[in-house]
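Q: C-alpha coordinates for this one, please.
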Amino acid sequence: MESWAKLVPELVVSDLEASLRFWRDLIGFSVAYDRPEAGFAYLDLAGAQVMLEQRSTADDQWVTGPLEAPLGRSINFQIEVPALQPILDRLAGADWPLFMAPEEAWYRASDVEVGQHQFLVTDPDGYLLRLAEDIGKRPAG
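A: Here is the predicted structure, written as C-alpha coordinates:
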Protein backbone atom coordinates (compact mmCIF):
# COMPACT_ATOMS: atom_id res chain seq x y z
CA MET A 1 0.00 0.00 0.00
CA GLU A 2 1.53 3.28 -1.11
CA SER A 3 -0.54 5.75 0.90
CA TRP A 4 -3.63 6.12 3.03
CA ALA A 5 -6.80 7.25 1.25
CA LYS A 6 -8.39 10.47 2.47
CA LEU A 7 -11.82 8.83 2.71
CA VAL A 8 -12.15 5.21 3.83
CA PRO A 9 -15.55 3.64 4.50
CA GLU A 10 -15.73 1.24 7.43
CA LEU A 11 -18.36 -1.42 6.82
CA VAL A 12 -19.91 -3.50 9.58
CA VAL A 13 -20.16 -7.09 8.33
CA SER A 14 -21.91 -10.12 9.73
CA ASP A 15 -19.07 -12.59 9.06
CA LEU A 16 -15.57 -11.20 8.55
CA GLU A 17 -14.19 -14.43 7.05
CA ALA A 18 -17.00 -14.61 4.48
CA SER A 19 -16.46 -10.93 3.65
CA LEU A 20 -12.72 -11.48 3.23
CA ARG A 21 -13.36 -14.39 0.87
CA PHE A 22 -15.44 -11.99 -1.27
CA TRP A 23 -13.41 -8.76 -1.04
CA ARG A 24 -9.95 -10.37 -1.09
CA ASP A 25 -10.33 -13.62 -3.01
CA LEU A 26 -12.96 -12.62 -5.58
CA ILE A 27 -12.62 -8.86 -6.00
CA GLY A 28 -8.83 -8.73 -5.52
CA PHE A 29 -8.23 -6.53 -2.48
CA SER A 30 -5.23 -7.25 -0.29
CA VAL A 31 -5.21 -7.05 3.49
CA ALA A 32 -3.03 -4.05 4.37
CA TYR A 33 -3.34 -4.96 8.04
CA ASP A 34 -5.80 -6.65 10.32
CA ARG A 35 -6.69 -7.20 13.94
CA PRO A 36 -8.23 -10.68 13.96
CA GLU A 37 -8.86 -10.54 17.71
CA ALA A 38 -11.05 -7.49 17.12
CA GLY A 39 -12.69 -8.80 13.93
CA PHE A 40 -11.16 -6.03 11.81
CA ALA A 41 -9.37 -5.83 8.44
CA TYR A 42 -8.08 -2.85 6.42
CA LEU A 43 -8.12 -3.61 2.70
CA ASP A 44 -6.47 -2.00 -0.31
CA LEU A 45 -6.80 -2.41 -4.09
CA ALA A 46 -4.49 -0.05 -5.97
CA GLY A 47 -5.38 2.83 -3.65
CA ALA A 48 -9.06 1.99 -3.18
CA GLN A 49 -9.39 1.28 0.52
CA VAL A 50 -12.10 -0.07 2.80
CA MET A 51 -12.27 -1.27 6.39
CA LEU A 52 -14.33 -4.29 7.41
CA GLU A 53 -15.48 -4.74 11.00
CA GLN A 54 -17.18 -7.85 12.35
CA ARG A 55 -20.63 -7.03 13.74
CA SER A 56 -20.77 -7.23 17.54
CA THR A 57 -22.86 -6.04 20.44
CA ALA A 58 -19.94 -4.15 21.99
CA ASP A 59 -20.63 -0.64 23.18
CA ASP A 60 -17.64 0.68 21.24
CA GLN A 61 -19.08 -0.20 17.80
CA TRP A 62 -20.32 2.88 15.97
CA VAL A 63 -23.78 1.81 14.84
CA THR A 64 -26.48 4.45 14.41
CA GLY A 65 -29.50 2.19 13.96
CA PRO A 66 -30.70 -1.38 13.52
CA LEU A 67 -28.56 -3.52 11.21
CA GLU A 68 -30.97 -5.25 8.88
CA ALA A 69 -30.04 -7.01 5.65
CA PRO A 70 -29.22 -5.86 3.10
CA LEU A 71 -26.76 -3.47 4.70
CA GLY A 72 -25.77 -0.27 2.93
CA ARG A 73 -29.13 0.36 1.28
CA SER A 74 -29.12 3.15 -1.31
CA ILE A 75 -25.33 3.41 -1.52
CA ASN A 76 -22.91 1.95 -4.01
CA PHE A 77 -19.15 2.07 -3.87
CA GLN A 78 -17.48 2.77 -7.20
CA ILE A 79 -14.08 1.10 -7.28
CA GLU A 80 -11.77 1.72 -10.22
CA VAL A 81 -9.82 -1.39 -11.15
CA PRO A 82 -7.16 -1.95 -13.83
CA ALA A 83 -9.21 -4.70 -15.53
CA LEU A 84 -12.71 -6.09 -15.01
CA GLN A 85 -12.31 -9.45 -16.73
CA PRO A 86 -10.18 -11.18 -14.07
CA ILE A 87 -12.72 -10.17 -11.42
CA LEU A 88 -15.63 -11.34 -13.57
CA ASP A 89 -13.84 -14.66 -14.11
CA ARG A 90 -13.32 -15.19 -10.37
CA LEU A 91 -16.95 -14.29 -9.61
CA ALA A 92 -18.18 -16.68 -12.32
CA GLY A 93 -15.89 -19.43 -10.99
CA ALA A 94 -17.45 -18.97 -7.56
CA ASP A 95 -20.96 -18.88 -9.10
CA TRP A 96 -21.43 -15.42 -7.55
CA PRO A 97 -24.42 -13.55 -9.04
CA LEU A 98 -24.04 -10.09 -10.54
CA PHE A 99 -26.45 -7.32 -9.58
CA MET A 100 -25.97 -5.71 -13.03
CA ALA A 101 -24.24 -7.21 -16.06
CA PRO A 102 -21.15 -5.53 -17.52
CA GLU A 103 -21.83 -2.50 -19.66
CA GLU A 104 -20.08 0.47 -21.24
CA ALA A 105 -21.13 3.78 -19.69
CA TRP A 106 -20.26 7.40 -20.44
CA TYR A 107 -20.78 10.18 -17.88
CA ARG A 108 -20.60 13.91 -18.62
CA ALA A 109 -18.08 15.85 -16.55
CA SER A 110 -18.17 19.50 -17.65
CA ASP A 111 -17.17 19.58 -21.33
CA VAL A 112 -16.03 15.95 -21.62
CA GLU A 113 -17.51 12.53 -21.12
CA VAL A 114 -15.59 9.94 -19.14
CA GLY A 115 -16.08 6.34 -20.10
CA GLN A 116 -15.88 3.10 -18.22
CA HIS A 117 -16.74 -0.55 -18.48
CA GLN A 118 -18.64 -1.36 -15.30
CA PHE A 119 -20.75 -3.93 -13.51
CA LEU A 120 -22.41 -4.18 -10.10
CA VAL A 121 -22.20 -6.94 -7.53
CA THR A 122 -23.24 -7.24 -3.89
CA ASP A 123 -21.01 -8.51 -1.12
CA PRO A 124 -22.24 -11.11 1.42
CA ASP A 125 -24.00 -8.42 3.49
CA GLY A 126 -25.65 -6.67 0.54
CA TYR A 127 -23.22 -3.76 0.11
CA LEU A 128 -23.35 -2.78 -3.56
CA LEU A 129 -20.06 -2.45 -5.43
CA ARG A 130 -19.72 -0.84 -8.86
CA LEU A 131 -16.46 -2.08 -10.35
CA ALA A 132 -15.23 0.16 -13.15
CA GLU A 133 -12.43 0.02 -15.72
CA ASP A 134 -11.47 3.36 -17.28
CA ILE A 135 -11.87 3.52 -21.07
CA GLY A 136 -10.97 7.16 -21.62
CA LYS A 137 -12.53 10.51 -22.37
CA ARG A 138 -14.32 12.07 -25.31
CA PRO A 139 -15.84 15.48 -26.03
CA ALA A 140 -19.29 15.91 -24.53
CA GLY A 141 -21.92 15.91 -27.20
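A few notes: The radius of gyration is 16 Å. The domain at 10-56+75-139 is CATH 3.10.180.10 (2,3-Dihydroxybiphenyl 1,2-Dioxygenase; domain 1).
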